[in-house]
Amino acid sequence: MALSNSQYNAIMRIYSERQFQDRYEQERRVKEVYEKIPQIRQIDEAVSTQAVACARRLLDGDRKARERLRQQIEDLREQKEVLLGALGYPGDYMELHYFCPQCQDTGYVDGKKCRCFKKEEITLLYAQSNIQEVLERENFAAFTFDYYDDKEVIRQIGMTVADYMRQVYGWCMDYVKGFQAKGGNLIFTGSTGVGKTFLTNCIAKELIDRYQSVIYLSANDLFDIFSKNKFHYDTEEEMRDMYQYILDCDLLIIDDLGTELNNTFVSSQLFYCINERLIRKKAVIISTNLSMDMLRDTYSDRISSRIISQYMIIPLYGGDIRTKKR
Fold first, then answer.
1. What is this structure's pTM?
2. How far is Cα 40 from Cα 83, in angstroms, rounded to an integer?
3. Cβ(1)–Cβ(45) under 8 Å?
4. Residues 6 or more apart from 242 whose CB is under 8 A from it?
């Protein structure tokens, strides 16, 4: 999605701070040089004086004044570089030095986002995803089928867990490739440790790297935010922004649904979140230890009907991978 106003403003504040720092550092270098080489201050003052005189001559009709000024400034610049070099300074020491010379710390080149702006977008999206550090470890590059059994055929799926996971891997990659065009919702079900959260993290990283906004929240954290937004009337602006971001981001990941303390408020907020994001055509991925029957019993028919009709249901099988890794 396009950056929200708050996201865009956050990035532009970075550029404003860089520009301020650029000017501060230039002023510091100029002051340093003036103190060590007073002749350079005189040269800079002479350039200003010559520029003013040239403007007056141009107003008086002297058409050659601009060319004479250019030559005078060039001569003074060469004198300045010689003086700087004599004390070991580079010729551009007193100029503005940019963090990104390509856009000169504006974020844009010829009206288009600079590469450094896109890098800041990625950095912001990772930071707001809630799982930046986790994604460095859990991603498709680290995915392996070694922990899935390739001998026993599982009756429910008619194949081994390893073969089934190759299918699941393909579904996840197809989801990522078609996300910008189609979006879509997934729910991973299965017992603890079968790889539900790992797969959601793999998808999250791929989408963030494609400039999609993703936020990961455990079910407990999600409903905590909803509760504070509804009942704390002095809720900080940051919390209200988070609430809106949950509804607006390209992909919301709800992890471990069913581990929260369920009540009427939780069920109503879950329905609102799922339904609102369906209306806005925003994607959701849910992971849960609950089966679809248990999901229906735990929440409500209208929640389960939304999930059954609007989500791709992907059950996962096998033992606890975390114990196999030890």
1. 0.72
2. 8
3. no
4. 225
Q: What one-letter code names the amino acid at 251?
A: L
Q: What pLDDT is attached to residue 74?
A: 83
**Each residue of 56-77: b (16+ CB within 10 Å) or e?**
ebeeeeeeebeeebeebbeebe
* pLDDT value of position 2: 60
Tokens 């590469």 correspond to 115
Q: How far apart are the C-alpha atoms of 300 and 289, rounded to whole Å?
A: 17
CA distance 23 to 27: 6
Per the rule left: phi > 0, alpha: psi between -120 and 50, beta: everything else, 251 is: beta
Compute the average pLDDT of residues 224-232. 80
What is the structure's pLDDT at 14?
Answer: 94
Residue 1 near residue 248 (C-beta atoms within 8 A):
yes
pLDDT grade for 311, boundaries at 50, 70 and 90: very high
